[in-house]
Design a protein that fits this description.
heterodimer, A: two-stranded antiparallel sheet, 6 strands, 2% strand, B: 0% strand
């Protein structure tokens, strides 16, 4: 057998060990992983608590957005109803879509990932527990603040995709639109933090022996999901930033009279917005693919094909964004490309559906509640998928664009593809975190009410749309034959809500949080989350030999609980987990994990303060909150990246692992690379915007500055890179105490000077960001580069502070490594900016 | 990295071809030039996929364990799928 890291796979044969374990190991694990109580409970960072709170918060937003939907349906029950005035209705449909997409669907998937992944991978926790806690609190506090805007009449009202020019300051004065732009920008930080956590967690904390081909499908789904978040979300971060800059500073990115273009928003938004549908669907599909083998009592048919379908969906979904723009008058050939891709994306979804049907056919399913939700979801999703293929055909799309037909289609896809699978998951996995399972009897009622309600609501909507009723209108006239279908839809919505209400009753009656003394493996799942667990996850970390380890080794639970596998204790007396290699999951080193801390919570509160106070134009206090948020993040990081006394420890059966490692194989390095991909995507989208606006309005473009400016700009960036590289190298050469920090600061300042000269070269031509979109984008590039330089300076000061306290390990240190990578990236982005902005000719 | 490229190569080829076609469509609009360039990009993408397929077959033949066989199988399947996908993606140039 081959090895990825030099680890000898034959060492796995030592497990399960036979010798008796020393007394007190379990008590020590429980002490180390103990959760604080009382008010201090809010400082926990363990995935069991954070994951469960996360799931609960996302479900709360589902309920809140559902209530908004009921109000809208009540308004539309009859023609010319006066229940909601027009402007309130506009706010409600905007908030319903926004909250469901940004505060329920995506966070719910991340939440389930945070809760399930460590258990399923047999890791003690995700690799950055404080980041998970920050992501949760940022999302919860930010989401609640955002939602409260609806009670004071300040909720956004431009639809969940907020198209300009409707949302420009001309047509949407006031701060309603700003709530959306800043609120959603803020929540995306949380989503990206969660995605980084999931990517590094899945690739680096799997149980030894869990090679990629044996990885659970839920882990595959979450890996692909997180990768898509990292690629897609930067586009919406950029477009919200650009629109906010246009509204606040009058920079005309979307104003065609000054070289901007409203369609740029649509391109950027839908480059995020359509993959978003699969970002929601893939984790839900992976939940289904994980549950079905247990529910049907057989292996999943076509396991490998399902993995391939996940990967294919992820790629193809980035080629379909313009099918939301068929009605905008794109070139016929481009329309053809997007139509073809939109049809192609249904193929991988179809593969999954057939794999599920085949598994049910091959197995012996019992029609319990999770099975009903899975089958009901499958049925509903297929119906939504078929209308999706219909709307991929351009002539039909032109007919039904912005009508209730599209509303029906998207609800069929999202309810069938995400909501029903989530409810199946609630019933299936509740016994893992609760002392009692949910009620089967009530669960069946919940299912049938929700299933009937869904179809009663949305099936007639196809007809409503085909009869010509546009979406987003607060009423309709009598005598247009729209009354009957609308009334049926309203009745259906309340039936659906009754099902959800009954689910709440079931939760109240039966859900009792319990990690250690949970109800257990009620449905007979074969994956590792059903091992006996505590807050430390499993007592010992098993070696994995198959895809359904609990089915293939009936004694595994007992051996794991007796500590007969890896890490049966706390080897260093601290929280720790095993970092394994990405392909073969070979043990590489022991990660020392941080414990409970209030700093992630404070950081989230101040981050919320920063964004919300900026929204209400309290800039001074808002900036102060931003500074405090950064300080809180630095304070939580302060306790990390430290060497412990035991340089190497026995991880079980004589396998010795180091406790501090630096270089490209560390989890910190991986997280930094993923973060740089996010930043790189924001930059790439800005470049796209620059080239796009040049393409549509070249007459507004002026000739770039002289190419001679490139010499000092590139020279300063080269100095920045050289100084950063020397900082890292000087550590290895035994440099003096302050040398690395001083070199990093020098590098950051050189980058700042390079960026300043680049901007100066443009401003010397007399450009003003309020006059043309070209000038506005040049300044947007400068803003991005300035942010990178500021972070570089912050890195240098942080290293200096750690140096002063003797916390920088030598000859190598992870914090210095990460600062070096960051500065090298910042220099590369600066060079690319200088080159591309000069590459396009000017017309003026 | 080689393992990831073997696994994802077919999809990367599809993505590269798609964004190239988008650029061609946006720059040259619906013109004969766009059709010719689309055809050329499609032929190049199919050639890349065929090469990937041969690499996957070779990797499968020399695999010594389950993971290597799995990577070769999945890489080969995705390269094969990519041949169909890029051909499908190029069709609008002939029809539109």
């Amino acid at each position: 057998m081959s090895s990825e890291t030099g680890f000898d796979p034959e060492l796995y044969d030592r497990f399960p060990t036979r010798e008796p374990r020393p007394d007190g190991e379990l008590a020590e694990l429980e002490r180390v992983w103990h959760a604080p109580s009382g008010w201090a409970r809010f400082t926990v960072v363990n995935n069991n608590y954070v994951g469960l709170w996360y799931v609960g918060a996302s479900f709360l937003f589902f309920l809140l957005a559902g209530c908004l939907a009921l109000l809208m349906r009540a308004q539309l029950a009859l023609p010319l109803q006066g229940l909601l005035p027009e402007h309130v209705y506009n706010q409600l449909f905007t908030m319903h879509g926004t909250v469901m997409m940004f505060l329920f669907a995506v966070p719910a998937m991340e939440a389930v990932g945070v809760l399930l992944l460590p258990q399923m991978l047999a890791a003690r926790d995700l690799p950055f527990p404080r980041l998970s806690a920050y992501a949760f609190w940022a999302y919860f506090i930010g989401g609640l603040s955002f939602f409260l805007s609806v009670f004071v009449g300040l909720a956004p009202d431009g639809g969940w995709f907020m198209y300009p020019p409707l949302t420009s300051s001309t047509y949407s004065p006031g701060i309603n639109a700003d709530f959306w732009l800043l609120g959603i920008g803020y929540i995306e930080i949380s989503a990206i933090a969660g995605a980084i956590e999931i990517i590094v967690g899945v690739l680096r904390t799997r149980a030894p022996g869990m090679t990629l081909d044996k990885m659970p499908l839920f882990a595959w789904g979450m890996l692909v999901f997180a990768g898509m978040v990292v690629i897609a979300f930067p586009a919406v971060i950029l477009c919200t930033l650009l629109l906010e800059l246009e509204r606040a500073l009058n920079w005309p990115f979307f104003d065609p009279t000054r070289g901007g273009d409203a369609l740029l928003w649509q391109h950027l938004f839908w480059f995020f917005g359509h993959p978003e549908v699969y970002i929601i669907f893939l984790p839900a599909a992976s939940l289904v693919s994980t549950m079905i083998p247990a529910l049907a009592k057989t292996e999943l048919v076509g396991h490998n094909l399902v993995v391939l379908a996940f990967l294919a969906t992820a790629f193809i979904s980035f080629g379909v964004w313009s099918h939301h723009m068929f009605a905008t008058g794109m070139p016929a050939i481009s329309v053809g490309f997007f139509s073809a891709a939109s049809m192609a994306v249904s193929v991988p979804a179809g593969i999954q559906v057939f794999a599920w049907i085949a598994t049910f056919a091959a197995g012996k399913p019992r029609f319990n509640t999770p099975t009903l939700f899975v089958v009901g979801g499958l049925f509903t999703f297929v119906m939504g998928g078929l209308t999706g293929v219909m709307t991929a055909m351009v002539p039909l799309d032109w007919q039904v664009h912005d009508s209730y037909f599209v509303v029906a289609h998207l609800h069929y896809v999202l309810i069938g593809g995400a909501v029903f699978p989530l409810f199946a998951a609630f019933y299936y996995w509740t016994p893992m975190v609760s002392a009692r399972p949910l009620s089967e009897r009530l669960g069946k009622w919940v299912f049938w009410l929700m299933f009937a309600g869904t179809h009663l609501t949305f099936l007639p909507m196809h007809l409503t749309g085909l009869m010509g009723m546009p979406r987003r209108v607060y009423t309709y006239l009598p005598g247009r034959e729209l009354s009957a279908t609308n009334f049926i839809s309203t009745v259906g919505a309340f039936v659906l809500a009754t099902g959800v209400l009954l689910f709440l009753v079931d939760l109240a009656r039966n859900f009792r949080m319990a990690i250690a003394r949970n109800a257990g493996n009620v449905y007979g799942g074969g994956t590792l989350e059903w091992l006996p667990t505590g807050l430390y996850s499993t007592r010992s970390i098993p070696v994995v030999h198959s895809r359904q380890p609990l089915w293939d080794d009936p004694k595994l639970s007992e051996s794991v609980e007796q500590g007969r596998y890896l890490l049966p204790n706390s080897a260093t007396g601290r929280r720790e987990t095993i970092i394994t290699s990405p392909l073969r999951a070979e043990p590489e080193y022991l990660q020392i994990m941080p414990g409970p801390s209030a700093w992630p919570l404070f950081a989230a509160i101040f981050t919320a303060g920063f964004f919300m106070l900026l929204t209400v134009k309290a800039s001074g206090v808002g900036v102060a909150c931003g500074v405090l948020a950064v300080l809180c993040v630095l304070r939580w990081l302060w306790e990390t990246d430290r060497q412990v006394a035991d340089v190497q420890v026995d991880a079980g059966a004589g396998i010795r692992l180091p406790t501090y490692v630096t270089g490209p194989n560390t989890h910190g390095w991986w997280a930094m690379i993923v973060l740089l991909v996010v930043i790189g995507m924001i930059f790439l989208m800005t470049l796209f915007s620059y080239v796009y606006l040049f393409g549509v309005h070249p007459q507004f473009w002026i000739a770039p500055p002289d190419w001679g400016w490139i010499v000092p700009i590139f020279g300063l960036y080269a100095i920045g890179v050289g100084a950063a590289w020397l900082a890292r190298r000087s550590m290895a050469k035994g440099a003096r105490l302050w040398t690395p920090a001083v070199l990093l600061l020098t590098g950051s300042l050189a980058l700042t000077a390079g960026a300043a000269i680049d901007l100066w070269s443009w401003r010397s031509l007399g450009i003003d960001p309020e006059f043309t979109s070209q000038a506005a984008l040049i300044h947007a590039f400068a803003v991005e580069q300035a942010l990178l330089c500021a972070i570089g300076v912050l890195f240098a000061l942080y290293i200096a502070a750690r140096t002063s306290r003797g916390l920088v390990t030598r000859p190598r240190n992870t914090s210095v490594d990460l600062a070096t990578i960051f500065l090298v990236y910042a220099a590369a982005q600066g060079c690319a900016t200088a080159l591309v902005t000069r590459a396009l000719p000017g017309a003026m | 990295m080689r393992a990831w490229l073997l696994l994802l190569g077919g999809l990367i080829v599809w993505a590269a071809q798609f964004f190239l076609l988008y650029a061609i469509g946006s720059i040259f609009l619906t013109t004969p030039t766009a059709r010719v360039l689309t055809g050329a990009a499609t032929v190049a993408a199919v050639a890349a996929d065929v090469w990937l397929l041969s690499q996957a077959r070779r990797a499968g033949a020399t695999a010594t364990d389950g993971l290597q066989r799995w990577l070769a199988y999945c890489g080969g399947m995705l390269a094969g799928l990519s041949i169909i996908a890029v051909s499908w993606q190029g069709l609008p140039a002939l029809l539109a």
